[in-house]
Amino acid sequence: MTPEEKCKMAVGAVKIEADAYMVCLTHALSTEREEVMGLLIGEVEDERVAHIYSVIMLQRLDKRKDRVEISPEQLSDASTQAERLGMLTSKQRPMRVIGWYHSHPHITVWPSHVDLRTQASYQFMDAGFVGLIFSCFNTDTNLGGHLKVYCFQSVNIKPEGSPPQPCNIYVLIFITKCSVFSYCIRYQRADIELQIVHTEVLSKATLNSLSELPQILSKEEEEAYSKTLNSKDLLTAVHNSTVFTKALCQLMEVMCGPLLQTLENRLQVNLKRTAALETEKEMLEKEINSVKAELQGSM
Protein backbone atom coordinates (compact mmCIF):
# COMPACT_ATOMS: atom_id res chain seq x y z
CA MET A 1 0.00 0.00 0.00
CA THR A 2 1.28 3.43 -0.91
CA PRO A 3 1.63 6.18 1.75
CA GLU A 4 -1.11 8.14 -0.02
CA GLU A 5 -3.55 5.23 0.28
CA LYS A 6 -2.64 4.70 3.91
CA CYS A 7 -3.38 8.33 4.73
CA LYS A 8 -6.89 7.88 3.35
CA MET A 9 -7.67 5.05 5.80
CA ALA A 10 -9.93 5.81 8.76
CA VAL A 11 -7.44 4.30 11.25
CA GLY A 12 -3.70 4.94 11.17
CA ALA A 13 -2.68 3.16 14.39
CA VAL A 14 -4.16 1.05 17.17
CA LYS A 15 -3.41 1.22 20.89
CA ILE A 16 -4.47 -1.57 23.23
CA GLU A 17 -4.30 -1.54 27.00
CA ALA A 18 -1.97 -4.21 28.41
CA ASP A 19 -4.72 -5.79 30.53
CA ALA A 20 -7.07 -6.03 27.52
CA TYR A 21 -4.19 -7.54 25.52
CA MET A 22 -3.72 -10.12 28.28
CA VAL A 23 -7.39 -11.11 28.04
CA CYS A 24 -7.07 -11.61 24.27
CA LEU A 25 -4.00 -13.79 24.77
CA THR A 26 -5.70 -15.83 27.49
CA HIS A 27 -8.68 -16.40 25.25
CA ALA A 28 -6.53 -17.34 22.25
CA LEU A 29 -4.50 -19.82 24.32
CA SER A 30 -7.58 -21.39 25.90
CA THR A 31 -8.01 -23.91 23.08
CA GLU A 32 -5.42 -25.40 20.78
CA ARG A 33 -7.62 -27.16 18.22
CA GLU A 34 -10.27 -24.55 17.35
CA GLU A 35 -10.40 -20.85 16.68
CA VAL A 36 -11.89 -18.40 19.16
CA MET A 37 -13.39 -14.99 18.53
CA GLY A 38 -14.18 -11.81 20.44
CA LEU A 39 -14.93 -8.11 20.03
CA LEU A 40 -12.72 -5.13 20.87
CA ILE A 41 -14.20 -2.32 22.96
CA GLY A 42 -12.83 1.23 22.90
CA GLU A 43 -12.99 4.52 21.03
CA VAL A 44 -11.34 6.22 18.08
CA GLU A 45 -9.23 9.15 19.27
CA ASP A 46 -7.85 12.13 17.40
CA GLU A 47 -5.33 11.62 14.62
CA ARG A 48 -6.98 8.37 13.51
CA VAL A 49 -5.88 6.29 16.51
CA ALA A 50 -8.16 3.51 17.76
CA HIS A 51 -7.72 2.85 21.49
CA ILE A 52 -8.85 -0.53 22.86
CA TYR A 53 -9.72 -0.67 26.57
CA SER A 54 -11.61 -3.94 26.94
CA VAL A 55 -12.85 -7.02 25.08
CA ILE A 56 -15.99 -9.12 24.85
CA MET A 57 -15.47 -12.87 24.57
CA LEU A 58 -18.05 -14.62 22.41
CA GLN A 59 -19.47 -18.09 22.78
CA ARG A 60 -18.98 -20.24 19.68
CA LEU A 61 -21.77 -21.99 17.85
CA ASP A 62 -19.42 -23.97 15.60
CA LYS A 63 -15.94 -24.99 16.73
CA ARG A 64 -13.55 -25.85 13.91
CA LYS A 65 -9.85 -25.66 13.22
CA ASP A 66 -10.18 -23.08 10.46
CA ARG A 67 -13.38 -21.19 11.26
CA VAL A 68 -15.55 -19.94 14.10
CA GLU A 69 -19.23 -19.02 14.10
CA ILE A 70 -21.19 -17.03 16.67
CA SER A 71 -24.86 -16.32 17.25
CA PRO A 72 -26.55 -13.14 15.95
CA GLU A 73 -27.92 -12.51 19.45
CA GLN A 74 -24.43 -12.03 20.84
CA LEU A 75 -23.58 -9.50 18.15
CA SER A 76 -26.77 -7.53 18.69
CA ASP A 77 -26.12 -7.46 22.45
CA ALA A 78 -22.51 -6.34 22.01
CA SER A 79 -23.32 -2.61 21.82
CA THR A 80 -25.11 -2.74 25.17
CA GLN A 81 -22.24 -4.64 26.75
CA ALA A 82 -19.75 -2.17 25.30
CA GLU A 83 -21.45 0.73 27.06
CA ARG A 84 -21.46 -1.18 30.34
CA LEU A 85 -17.83 -2.32 30.08
CA GLY A 86 -16.73 1.20 29.17
CA MET A 87 -17.89 2.40 32.59
CA LEU A 88 -15.65 -0.25 34.21
CA THR A 89 -12.47 0.88 32.41
CA SER A 90 -10.05 3.57 33.52
CA LYS A 91 -11.95 6.13 31.40
CA GLN A 92 -15.28 5.34 33.09
CA ARG A 93 -17.43 6.34 30.14
CA PRO A 94 -19.57 4.44 27.61
CA MET A 95 -17.65 2.98 24.68
CA ARG A 96 -18.45 1.06 21.51
CA VAL A 97 -17.29 -1.93 19.50
CA ILE A 98 -14.35 -0.82 17.33
CA GLY A 99 -12.88 -4.14 16.22
CA TRP A 100 -12.74 -7.90 16.47
CA TYR A 101 -10.10 -10.53 17.16
CA HIS A 102 -9.72 -14.23 16.55
CA SER A 103 -7.05 -16.88 16.92
CA HIS A 104 -5.08 -18.90 14.39
CA PRO A 105 -3.95 -22.04 16.24
CA HIS A 106 -1.14 -23.75 14.34
CA ILE A 107 -1.78 -21.37 11.42
CA THR A 108 0.19 -18.43 10.08
CA VAL A 109 -0.73 -14.99 11.39
CA TRP A 110 -1.69 -13.60 7.99
CA PRO A 111 -5.44 -13.19 7.36
CA SER A 112 -7.08 -15.60 4.94
CA HIS A 113 -9.38 -14.51 2.13
CA VAL A 114 -12.31 -15.29 4.44
CA ASP A 115 -10.79 -13.05 7.13
CA LEU A 116 -10.36 -10.24 4.63
CA ARG A 117 -13.95 -10.54 3.46
CA THR A 118 -15.23 -10.64 7.03
CA GLN A 119 -13.18 -7.55 7.84
CA ALA A 120 -14.50 -5.81 4.72
CA SER A 121 -18.08 -6.42 5.81
CA TYR A 122 -17.32 -4.84 9.19
CA GLN A 123 -15.74 -1.83 7.50
CA PHE A 124 -18.80 -1.46 5.31
CA MET A 125 -20.69 -0.39 8.45
CA ASP A 126 -17.77 1.29 10.26
CA ALA A 127 -14.71 2.42 8.30
CA GLY A 128 -12.66 2.51 11.51
CA PHE A 129 -13.22 -1.15 12.35
CA VAL A 130 -9.97 -3.07 12.90
CA GLY A 131 -9.05 -6.74 13.18
CA LEU A 132 -6.51 -8.56 15.36
CA ILE A 133 -5.19 -12.06 14.68
CA PHE A 134 -3.36 -14.10 17.33
CA SER A 135 -1.27 -16.87 15.80
CA CYS A 136 -0.49 -19.32 18.61
CA PHE A 137 0.73 -22.85 19.33
CA ASN A 138 3.42 -22.55 16.68
CA THR A 139 6.80 -24.19 17.24
CA ASP A 140 10.17 -23.55 15.66
CA THR A 141 13.27 -25.72 15.90
CA ASN A 142 15.40 -22.69 16.79
CA LEU A 143 13.01 -20.44 18.69
CA GLY A 144 10.71 -23.00 20.29
CA GLY A 145 7.10 -21.98 20.83
CA HIS A 146 6.20 -18.45 19.75
CA LEU A 147 3.13 -16.27 19.36
CA LYS A 148 2.48 -13.53 16.80
CA VAL A 149 -0.11 -10.76 16.71
CA TYR A 150 -1.23 -8.94 13.58
CA CYS A 151 -3.45 -5.87 13.25
CA PHE A 152 -5.06 -5.19 9.88
CA GLN A 153 -7.85 -3.75 7.78
CA SER A 154 -9.13 -4.76 4.35
CA VAL A 155 -8.53 -2.63 1.27
CA ASN A 156 -10.62 -2.84 -1.87
CA ILE A 157 -8.26 -3.26 -4.82
CA LYS A 158 -10.93 -3.20 -7.51
CA PRO A 159 -9.63 -0.89 -10.27
CA GLU A 160 -12.58 1.51 -10.13
CA GLY A 161 -12.17 1.74 -6.36
CA SER A 162 -15.83 1.29 -5.51
CA PRO A 163 -16.76 0.59 -1.85
CA PRO A 164 -17.47 -2.98 -0.75
CA GLN A 165 -20.86 -4.20 -1.97
CA PRO A 166 -21.76 -7.52 -0.33
CA CYS A 167 -24.08 -9.75 -2.32
CA ASN A 168 -25.90 -11.11 0.73
CA ILE A 169 -27.38 -8.58 3.14
CA TYR A 170 -28.14 -11.32 5.69
CA VAL A 171 -24.45 -12.06 5.97
CA LEU A 172 -23.69 -8.35 6.30
CA ILE A 173 -26.11 -7.90 9.19
CA PHE A 174 -25.07 -10.85 11.29
CA ILE A 175 -21.42 -10.93 10.24
CA THR A 176 -20.60 -14.59 10.77
CA LYS A 177 -17.22 -15.83 9.73
CA CYS A 178 -18.18 -18.56 7.31
CA SER A 179 -17.75 -19.51 3.71
CA VAL A 180 -21.10 -18.17 2.50
CA PHE A 181 -19.61 -14.72 1.94
CA SER A 182 -19.96 -13.93 -1.71
CA TYR A 183 -18.24 -10.87 -3.08
CA CYS A 184 -17.42 -9.93 -6.61
CA ILE A 185 -14.44 -7.84 -5.58
CA ARG A 186 -11.05 -8.68 -4.18
CA TYR A 187 -9.32 -7.40 -1.04
CA GLN A 188 -5.83 -7.15 0.28
CA ARG A 189 -4.61 -6.65 3.82
CA ALA A 190 -3.45 -3.29 5.12
CA ASP A 191 -0.96 -3.36 7.99
CA ILE A 192 -1.98 -1.28 11.01
CA GLU A 193 0.57 -0.29 13.64
CA LEU A 194 -0.24 -1.88 17.01
CA GLN A 195 0.97 -0.35 20.30
CA ILE A 196 0.57 -1.98 23.71
CA VAL A 197 -0.07 0.61 26.43
CA HIS A 198 1.31 -0.23 29.88
CA THR A 199 -1.26 -0.40 32.69
CA GLU A 200 -0.47 -0.44 36.41
CA VAL A 201 -3.60 -2.31 37.50
CA LEU A 202 -6.24 -4.61 36.05
CA SER A 203 -9.48 -2.79 35.33
CA LYS A 204 -12.83 -4.13 36.51
CA ALA A 205 -13.75 -4.77 32.88
CA THR A 206 -10.68 -7.01 32.52
CA LEU A 207 -11.47 -8.94 35.69
CA ASN A 208 -15.04 -9.47 34.53
CA SER A 209 -13.86 -10.79 31.16
CA LEU A 210 -11.36 -13.16 32.76
CA SER A 211 -13.98 -14.52 35.14
CA GLU A 212 -16.40 -15.12 32.26
CA LEU A 213 -13.95 -17.18 30.18
CA PRO A 214 -14.32 -20.49 32.12
CA GLN A 215 -18.10 -20.01 32.11
CA ILE A 216 -18.15 -19.51 28.34
CA LEU A 217 -16.00 -22.58 27.67
CA SER A 218 -18.00 -24.77 30.04
CA LYS A 219 -21.28 -23.59 28.50
CA GLU A 220 -19.97 -24.54 25.05
CA GLU A 221 -19.25 -28.05 26.33
CA GLU A 222 -22.66 -28.28 28.01
CA GLU A 223 -24.51 -27.30 24.86
CA ALA A 224 -22.49 -29.75 22.78
CA TYR A 225 -23.29 -32.51 25.28
CA SER A 226 -26.99 -31.63 25.46
CA LYS A 227 -27.30 -32.30 21.72
CA THR A 228 -26.36 -35.94 22.34
CA LEU A 229 -28.86 -36.66 25.11
CA ASN A 230 -31.45 -38.00 22.68
CA SER A 231 -29.31 -41.03 21.96
CA LYS A 232 -31.07 -44.23 23.10
CA ASP A 233 -28.00 -46.45 22.89
CA LEU A 234 -26.57 -47.08 26.37
CA LEU A 235 -22.93 -47.36 25.31
CA THR A 236 -23.20 -44.19 23.25
CA ALA A 237 -24.74 -42.31 26.17
CA VAL A 238 -21.99 -43.50 28.54
CA HIS A 239 -19.32 -42.56 26.02
CA ASN A 240 -20.77 -39.07 25.51
CA SER A 241 -21.05 -38.54 29.25
CA THR A 242 -17.43 -39.61 29.72
CA VAL A 243 -16.22 -37.25 26.99
CA PHE A 244 -18.18 -34.40 28.60
CA THR A 245 -16.71 -35.13 32.03
CA LYS A 246 -13.21 -35.33 30.57
CA ALA A 247 -13.69 -31.96 28.83
CA LEU A 248 -14.79 -30.29 32.08
CA CYS A 249 -11.88 -31.80 34.01
CA GLN A 250 -9.44 -30.61 31.37
CA LEU A 251 -11.01 -27.16 31.51
CA MET A 252 -10.47 -27.01 35.26
CA GLU A 253 -6.90 -28.23 34.92
CA VAL A 254 -5.65 -26.03 32.08
CA MET A 255 -7.86 -22.95 32.54
CA CYS A 256 -9.57 -22.53 35.90
CA GLY A 257 -6.64 -23.62 38.05
CA PRO A 258 -3.92 -21.50 36.39
CA LEU A 259 -6.29 -18.52 36.10
CA LEU A 260 -7.17 -18.68 39.78
CA GLN A 261 -3.50 -19.03 40.72
CA THR A 262 -2.60 -16.02 38.56
CA LEU A 263 -5.24 -13.85 40.20
CA GLU A 264 -4.16 -14.99 43.66
CA ASN A 265 -0.54 -14.15 42.85
CA ARG A 266 -1.67 -10.76 41.61
CA LEU A 267 -3.55 -10.23 44.87
CA GLN A 268 -0.47 -11.07 46.94
CA VAL A 269 1.63 -8.62 44.89
CA ASN A 270 -0.96 -5.91 45.43
CA LEU A 271 -1.08 -6.59 49.18
CA LYS A 272 2.72 -6.36 49.44
CA ARG A 273 2.71 -3.16 47.41
CA THR A 274 -0.01 -1.71 49.63
CA ALA A 275 1.96 -2.59 52.77
CA ALA A 276 5.11 -0.99 51.32
CA LEU A 277 3.21 2.18 50.46
CA GLU A 278 1.69 2.32 53.96
CA THR A 279 5.18 2.02 55.47
CA GLU A 280 6.48 4.76 53.20
CA LYS A 281 3.51 6.92 54.13
CA GLU A 282 4.24 6.53 57.85
CA MET A 283 7.90 7.43 57.30
CA LEU A 284 7.00 10.55 55.36
CA GLU A 285 4.48 11.61 58.02
CA LYS A 286 7.18 11.24 60.69
CA GLU A 287 9.57 13.36 58.64
CA ILE A 288 6.91 16.01 58.13
CA ASN A 289 6.12 16.11 61.86
CA SER A 290 9.84 16.34 62.63
CA VAL A 291 10.29 19.27 60.25
CA LYS A 292 7.22 21.00 61.73
CA ALA A 293 8.62 20.56 65.25
CA GLU A 294 11.98 22.05 64.23
CA LEU A 295 10.28 25.02 62.61
CA GLN A 296 8.14 25.66 65.69
CA GLY A 297 11.19 25.40 67.96
CA SER A 298 13.15 27.96 65.94
CA MET A 299 10.36 30.54 66.00
UniProtKB/TrEMBL annotation:
GO biological processes: DNA repair; protein K63-linked deubiquitination; proteolysis
Record-annotated MPN domain positions: 14-158
Chain segments annotated as transmembrane: none
Keywords: Coiled coil, Hydrolase, Metal-binding, Metalloprotease, Protease, Ubl conjugation pathway, Zinc
Cellular component, GO annotation: BRCA1-A complex; BRISC complex
Keyword Iron-sulfur found: no
Coiled coil: 260-294
GO molecular function, one term: cysteine-type deubiquitinase activity
Tree of life domain: Eukaryota
Classification via CDD domains: MPN_BRCC36
Keyword Metal-binding: yes
Family, per entry: Belongs to the peptidase M67A family. BRCC36 subfamily.
Family matches, as PANTHER family: EUKARYOTIC TRANSLATION INITIATION FACTOR 3 -RELATED
Name this protein carries in UniProt: MPN domain-containing protein
Source lineage: Eukaryota, Metazoa, Cnidaria, Anthozoa, Hexacorallia
